[in-house]
């Protein structure tokens, strides 16, 4: 018995140093924790947002949770931040992203209102385009049953924005009319759905012609192709007095048009400056033009016009957490009732972030553009192929339309030529008859 105990003792590390070395060796054998992060390295084009792999894992502080991100939302604010025309970011380099959805993996000290395993949506000014994020619990919202991570990443920014514009500022009520610019985008889609929760709302929505069928299916009674028609004229054809609410994400001269389109007692809500995004990089001419054409109105003009003008910026409400939480609670009730549901346009992997930004900036999306941190390569390639097919189909339709126009013009020219020949022939006959009559008359004389 003593011999066995002696053998066991010999099998154990002889010193504390050996024990420590054994622990280090075991730790080294474990794979190192890493996570993906999209960082804005400098202002400029799509290539300025780069994928980095960080080592280790963030540790939640008191009152925070660690969330493993499954999907991230892309917003116009992210595009503007990339160009350097968004003022709510710290110094570079910085991770972009105002919203995401994922699973709580770890709790910080004192956290009692969240549990490991909770599915949550997250809202923040920046920093959420990462595979792992630490965040205060009051910036997280529990996802309802049945909501996907993609829907969760498409929910907060768009629906909070649309809801507060329409109901807090616009006081939307039955039998009113609303003009929604960029009606096929994330905020536009949310606004259309929210308008349909109120009786008898007349919705005007601007979008390129290829998106009109989709707009009609979603409830836009009057889709307007802003590229080929004057939307002011189109609105007044239907409603000569104008509309009750205009949602303006454009800025510049469009804000002036919006104000003039309001009915008496109407409300204009300005919530963006999409007209600044004219290319990949910041356009000084576009900035100067927007500044020169910026809307200006005096208090006395507002009084005599009986109109109101409001400004909305969700990024500047990040301290109003009680207000935001109340709005999210209302929106989640509407989601559970089936009255609103995020529409996902396309999903891109973190590696395809440039393509995702291009998709949104070129206004090709119908609904929300989503970034997926750990999207399998095969799925990413499949989505890219599908997107290429959609673009090719769109271009095909465009080419077919141009060909039809060209053929129509050709036919019109042919018809005109035939008519001209026919008219010339008739004129020649007529002239010949007249000459014959004159000659006959001369002969008689």
TrEMBL record:
GO cellular component terms attached to this protein's record: mitochondrial outer membrane
Domain of life according to the entry: Eukaryota
Matches recorded under SMART domains: PKS_ER
Biased composition regions of type Basic and acidic residues, renumbered to the chain: 1-11, 375-445
UniProt-recorded Gene Ontology molecular function terms: oxidoreductase activity; zinc ion binding
InterPro entries in the cross-refs: ADH-like_N, ER, GroES-like_sf, NAD(P)-bd_dom_sf, Quin_OxRdtase/zeta-crystal_CS, SV-ATPase_mito-regulator
Record Gene3D superfamilies: Medium-chain alcohol dehydrogenases, catalytic domain, NAD(P)-binding Rossmann-like Domain
Gene Ontology biological process terms from the UniProt entry: negative regulation of mitochondrial fusion
Any coiled-coil regions, as ranges: none
Alphabetically ordered keywords of this record: Oxidoreductase
Region of interest (Disordered), residue spans: 1-30, 367-445
Domain Enoyl reductase (ER): 44-371
Entry's family note: Belongs to the zinc-containing alcohol dehydrogenase family. Quinone oxidoreductase subfamily.
PANTHER family according to UniProt: SYNAPTIC VESICLE MEMBRANE PROTEIN VAT-1 HOMOLOG, SYNAPTIC VESICLE MEMBRANE PROTEIN VAT-1 HOMOLOG-LIKE
Protein name as catalogued: MGC82953 protein
The species this protein was found in: Xenopus laevis
Lineage of origin: Eukaryota, Metazoa, Chordata, Craniata, Vertebrata
Name of the gene: vat1.L
């Amino acid at each position: 018995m003593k011999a066995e105990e002696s053998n066991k003792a010999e099998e154990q590390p002889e010193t504390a140093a050996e024990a420590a070395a054994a622990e280090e060796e075991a730790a080294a054998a474990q794979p190192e924790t890493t996570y993906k992060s999209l960082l804005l390295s400098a202002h400029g084009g799509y290539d300025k947002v780069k994928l980095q792999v960080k080592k280790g894992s963030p540790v939640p502080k008191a009152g925070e949770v660690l969330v493993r991100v499954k999907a991230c939302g892309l917003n116009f604010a992210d595009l503007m931040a990339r160009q350097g025309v968004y003022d709510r970011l710290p110094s570079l380099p910085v991770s972009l992203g105002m919203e995401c959805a994922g699973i709580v993996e770890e709790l910080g000290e004192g956290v009692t209102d969240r549990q490991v395993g909770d599915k949550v949506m997250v809202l923040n000014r920046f920093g959420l385009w990462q595979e792992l994020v630490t965040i205060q619990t009051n910036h997280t919202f529990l996802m309802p049953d049945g909501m996907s991570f993609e829907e969760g990443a498409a929910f907060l920014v768009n629906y909070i924005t649309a809801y507060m514009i329409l109901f807090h500022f616009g006081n939307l009520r039955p039998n009113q009319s609303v003009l929604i610019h960029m009606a096929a985008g994330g905020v536009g889609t949310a606004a259309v759905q929210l308008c349909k929760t109120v009786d008898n709302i007349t919705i005007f929505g601007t979008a390129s012609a290829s998106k009109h069928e989709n707009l009609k299916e979603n409830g836009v009674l009057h889709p307007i192709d802003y590229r080929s028609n004057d939307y002011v004229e189109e609105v007044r054809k239907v409603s000569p007095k104008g509309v009750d609410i205009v949602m303006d994400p454009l800025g510049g001269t469009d804000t002036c048009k919006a104000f003039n389109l309001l009915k008496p007692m109407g409300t204009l809500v300005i919530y963006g400056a999409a007209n600044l995004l004219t290319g990949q990089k910041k356009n000084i001419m576009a900035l100067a033009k927007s500044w020169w054409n910026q809307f200006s109105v005096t208090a006395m003009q507002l009084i005599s016009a009986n109109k109101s003008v409001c400004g909305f910026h969700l990024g500047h409400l990040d301290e109003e957490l009680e207000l935001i939480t109340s709005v999210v609670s209302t929106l989640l009730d509407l989601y559970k009732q089936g009255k609103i549901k995020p529409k996902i346009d396309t999903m891109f992997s973190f590696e395809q972030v440039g393509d995702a930004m291009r998709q949104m900036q070129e206004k090709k999306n119908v609904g929300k553009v989503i970034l997926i941190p750990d999207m399998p390569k095969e799925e990413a390639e499949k989505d890219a192929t599908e997107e290429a097919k959609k673009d090719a189909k769109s271009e095909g339709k465009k080419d077919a339309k141009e060909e039809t126009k060209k053929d129509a013009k050709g036919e019109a020219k042919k018809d005109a030529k035939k008519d001209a020949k026919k008219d010339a022939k008739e004129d020649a006959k007529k002239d010949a008859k007249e000459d014959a009559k004159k000659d006959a008359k001369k002969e008689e004389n």
